[in-house]
Write a structure and sequence with these properties.
Shape of chain A: globular
Number of domains of chain B: 1
CATH topology of chain B: ABC transporter involved in vitamin B12 uptake, BtuC
Structural class of chain B: mainly alpha
Structural class of chain A: alpha/beta
CATH architecture of the largest domain in chain A: 3-Layer(aba) Sandwich
Distance between the termini of chain A: 25 Å
Strand order of the largest sheet of chain A: 6-7-8-3-9-10
Number of helices of chain A: 10
Largest sheet of chain B: 2 strands, antiparallel
CATH topology of the largest domain in chain A: Rossmann fold
Helix content of chain B: over 70%
Number of domains of chain A: 2
CATH superfamily of the largest domain in chain A: P-loop containing nucleotide triphosphate hydrolases
Oligomer: heterodimer
Chain lengths: 258, 287
């Protein structure tokens, strides 16, 4: 069922397809002690695509993000961003290459205001002067409905606003590739819907998205492709409908998820 | 009238302690590092100013101006080469390393500068005073206090008004997430320690002009600085100024009652504050 993903135009030359690939993982493996949390994972994401990642708890989804952002280094395999090998590049450098990330458990800088959180991410993430990113940050605040909390300390936010801030801050770092880690988890249906709209708008703007999510209907309303992870292995990649219909996936995934 | 005078003198003395403490507070606030060599670094800075003054014949203020960038570079280097390697979840390694640094500095200075008492000569300024109605205060204590206020004010401006300050606070909150926003914690820490060394230079300037110094007096300055930081609340810069003032006033009041009680009274005030407010007067809201 796993098939090598390709750039959208079938006639494109090999070099062309590399150029339009935002992310490519080749046989990436990572073990913590005897536990292999990422097991020869290979996949690629073409520019502008939204890829969903699903899998039971402990399948290694967040570890995969940590490998992509550079928080942890793989034992084997290679990671490429826009055709460049970044396997050994530190996290800070990858941010400047356009990797933005939101965390499963929101981790705002609590001692900074909401606006300062964005300003910091924008100035350092894009290596630009603060004066040049202020408008951009204000726009993101408006877009993520955080404008009214702009001058509040991030530590004082509600869960929904923290999730919004996660998204806003990741956007402020100027991502070409946006990694969202269970951003819809723990939200009410209405809150979730609002967040999905924001993500959809980002996607429409051409930002490549990889989204780990348990809230499947939210995920499937945005992504074009699903990747299923189990025990650190990729056990399926394909169109959401196709993946959800697969018996193997239903057994592994829905067997554990109510 | 004598009590008013005592309290004013104490406040001004507190300015010196706040200067001792500003760098310590900055470094602790940003990287949770208690620098046990802080007092020795002040003495080291005083000797460096002395060397500059003796070599160039400049007055101590200009000498400090020359010493400050050198000490910034020194702090930056020590952080990059030594302290960044030991910062982590465990608080013991950095304590041990700064303790080692303290001993190395003391003995190094003893070797190079001998145990002789030294002083930075500021000329007539040393004894000049100004009449402020009910009290007469020395120009030097007044300058010390004004410098402390300016240092704390400047650090606060940097902390809350600049990109660097936001990077300081973001890194202090969470270095790992900060690195995902494009901030390099190792470099942020190095700049912070460099900045702390600039405040140390100013502290050393006033220490050297107001009293004698020799290689052995560092640890006692560390204690005063440490108490000022704790009284103010860890990580609060204005709190540190207040902490310095409290110790200063307690010392002069103690000395007024009995000259032998000066140092003791400062420590007692510290204990009293700890008893009532164990986290200091202005603890951080988020920790």
């Amino acid at each position: 069922m796993q098939r090598p993903p390709r750039g959208s135009s079938p006639g494109a030359a090999g070099r062309q397809s590399i150029m339009t690939e935002v992310l490519r993982l080749e046989n990436v493996s990572k073990s913590f002690g005897a536990l292999r949390v990422t097991d020869t994972v290979s996949f690629s994401v073409p520019k502008g695509q939204a890829l969903g990642i699903i899998g039971p708890n402990g399948a290694g989804k967040s570890t995969l993000f940590n490998l992509i952002t550079g928080n942890i280094l793989p034992d084997r395999g290679s990671i490429h961003l826009s055709g460049q090998d970044v396997t050994r590049l530190p996290a800070m450098r990858r941010v400047r290459m356009g990797v933005g990330r939101s965390f499963q458990i929101p981790q705002p800088f609590e001692g900074l205001t909401v606006y300062e959180n964005l300003l910091t991410a924008a100035a350092f993430g894009q290596a630009r002067r603060e004066a040049d990113v202020q408008t951009e940050c204000a726009e993101i605040l408006a877009e993520t409905e955080l404008l009214r909390r702009a001058n509040d300390l991030a530590g004082s936010l509600s869960l929904l606003d923290r999730k919004r801030l996660e998204l806003a801050r990741a956007m402020a770092s100027g991502p070409e590739l946006l990694l969202l880690d269970e951003i819809a988890g723990g939200l009410t249906e209405g809150e979730c819907q609002a967040l999905v709209e924001t993500i959809r708008a980002l996607h429409a703007r051409g930002i490549t998205i990889i989204w780990i999510e348990h809230v499947l209907h939210a995920l499937n309303s945005v992504v074009e492709r699903l990747l299923v992870l189990d025990f650190g292995k990729v056990i399926g990649v394909g169109a959401p409908a196709e993946i959800m219909a697969s018996k193997e996936v239903r057994e592994i995934y829905l067997g554990l998820e109510v | 009238m004598i009590w008013l005078d005592t309290i004013v003198q104490g406040l001004l003395l507190g300015g010196l302690y706040a200067l001792f403490a500003a760098g310590l507070s900055l470094v602790f606030g940003i990287m949770r590092l208690v620098n046990l060599a802080h007092g020795d670094l002040i003495v080291f800075a005083a000797f460096l100013i002395l060397v500059v003054v003796q070599m160039t014949g400049l007055n101590p203020f200009l000498g400090a101006l020359i010493a400050a960038p050198l000490l910034f570079a020194f702090g930056w280097l020590v952080q990059r080469v030594v302290l960044n390697r030991v910062l982590g979840k465990d608080i013991l390694p950095p304590l041990l390393v700064t303790f080692g640094l303290s001993i190395a500095l003391q003995n190094g200075m003893l070797e190079v500068f001998s145990a002789d008492s030294q002083r930075l000569r500021a000329g007539p300024l040393e004894s000049a005073s100004v009449d402020l109605g009910p009290v007469t205060v020395g120009i030097m204590p007044l300058l010390t206090f004004a410098s402390a206020v300016m240092v704390i004010f400047a650090l606060n401006q940097i902390f809350y008004r600049t990109a660097l300050g936001r990077a300081f606070r973001a890194t202090s909150d969470d270095p790992v997430t900060a690195s995902l926003m494009g901030i390099n914690p190792a470099s942020v820490f190095a700049i912070a320690t460099g900045l702390a060394m600039v405040t140390v230079t100013i502290a050393a300037l006033f220490l050297g002009m107001r009293s004698n110094f020799d290689p052995s007096i560092g640890p006692a300055r560390l204690i005063f600085a440490f108490e000022a930081v704790i009284i103010g609340g860890l990580g609060s810069l204005w709190g540190t100024l207040l902490g310095g003032a409290i110790i200063g006033v307690a010392q002069t009041v103690g000395a007024q009652i009995n000259p032998e009680w000066q140092i003791l009274a400062g420590h007692l005030a510290f204990l009293a504050v700890l008893l009532v407010r164990p986290r200091g007067l202005f603890p951080r809201a988020v920790d």
